[in-house]
Design goal:
CATH architecture: Clam
Helix content: 10-25%
CATH superfamily: Lipoprotein localisation LolA/LolB/LppX
Largest sheet: 12 strands, antiparallel
Order of helices and strands: HEHEEHEEEEHHEEEEE
CATH topology: outer membrane lipoprotein receptor (LolB), chain A
Strand content: over 45%
Radius of gyration: 17 Å
Structural class: alpha+beta
Number of strands: 12
Distance between the termini: 39 Å
CATH class: Mainly Beta
Length: 223
């Protein structure tokens, strides 16, 4: 039971982080839903330069023949540059809480040094993927998720499909397929909104085998 619960909570690593850098500016979700004119290449370049951000929202985990589980999610993320992001040399913090405000999971990462608090226990290590595997028995795409969340590829072999541009010179991601740790991952982007000039996902669905993860983002914060 505990192992299964930890597995569910660690999937929150899709979204998590808090930083020791300057406070993030929060952009309200109720901005206009219009899009800006961007080619795919222009959007990808802009997203790769987005290295300091936060999100808050809700996440739900649905496993075949298992009870649906959901929680509120907060994630802030700070990388100094593109290479640090790729190598996971960054500062991040994850908080997963119940709807009553009870903390289920807390993660702090500082340049590949990780502290995880879950079920009143602390775990520390230098390899986040290894820590998660030892606690859960699952290989999760912890590095890739911060890329997928923005609608960009993590690996050169990731396959993205795009929405029709509707003559607005804008094509937003529709799906992403990835083979990560010899597991097939499928991401569907259901909704985008404009936040301070960035066209960012607010609803997405992630599937791997019998697991479905639904994420609804209420706010994006951009430094």
């Amino acid at each position: 039971m505990f192992k299964h619960f930890v597995f569910i909570t660690f999937l929150i690593l899709l979204l998590s982080a808090c930083s020791s850098r300057s406070p993030l500016k929060t952009i309200a979700e109720n901005q206009p839903k219009n899009v800006v004119a961007q080619t795919i290449t222009q959007r990808n370049q802009q997203m790769r330069q987005l290295l300091h951000w936060s999100i808050s929202g809700k996440i739900a985990f649905i496993e075949k023949n298992k009870k649906r589980q959901s929680a509120t999610l907060k994630w802030t993320y700070n990388a100094s540059n593109r290479n640090d992001e790729i190598n996971n040399n960054l500062q991040q913090q994850i908080d997963l809480t119940t709807f009553l405000g009870i903390n289920l999971l807390h993660l702090e990462s500082n340049n590949n040094k990780h502290l995880i608090k879950v079920n009143r226990k602390k775990y520390q290590g230098n390899n986040l993927n290894t820590m998660i595997y030892r606690l859960t028995g699952f290989k999760l795409p912890t590095k890739a998720l911060s890329f997928w969340l923005k609608g960009i590829a993590y690996k050169n072999t990731d396959k993205l499909s795009y929405q029709p541009n509707n003559n607005k010179n804008t094509s937003l991601p529709l799906t992403l397929e990835s083979d990560y740790y010899q597991q097939k991952w499928h991401i569907s982007y259901d909704q985008f909104k404009l936040f301070n000039g960035y066209q960012l996902p607010t609803k997405l669905t992630i599937k791997q085998a019998d697991l479905t993860i639904k994420i609804a983002i209420n706010q994006w914060g951009i430094l």
